[in-house]
Design brief:
elongated, 103 residues
């Protein structure tokens, strides 16, 4: 189940990146980038923004759901693996005298 959610999560990540990059800036569109005066888009000037906004919202919701699902599934597995697993702590120095350099 974890590999399925991982693959789904990565696909959603790339889709979300692509959709965010496709969105026009405030008051700008592709025609404006090439010096065009009018906005001649396939969905109309406002239709594209609304469609991309809705798709972005739903993709972000799916991203959050897959993130939480992966976290819960990995926590339930109970392997106890952590980023810091196996890292040894530094020994504590008990002497209050400063270290002297060796000659």
């Amino acid at each position: 189940m974890i590999p399925f959610f991982t693959v789904l999560h990565v696909i959603i990540c790339f889709v979300l990146i692509g959709i965010v990059l496709l969105q026009p800036g405030k008051g700008a569109d592709l025609a404006g980038a090439f010096g065009g005066q009018g906005s001649q888009t396939a969905f109309g000037p406002r239709g594209t923004a609304n469609l991309l906004t809705k798709v972005t919202t739903w993709t972000a919701i799916l991203f959050a759901i897959t993130s939480v699902s992966l976290t819960v599934l990995i926590a339930r597995r109970g392997n106890g693996h952590s980023v810091l697993h196996g890292l040894q702590s530094a020994p504590s120095q008990t002497s209050s005298a400063p270290a002297t350099p060796h000659k």
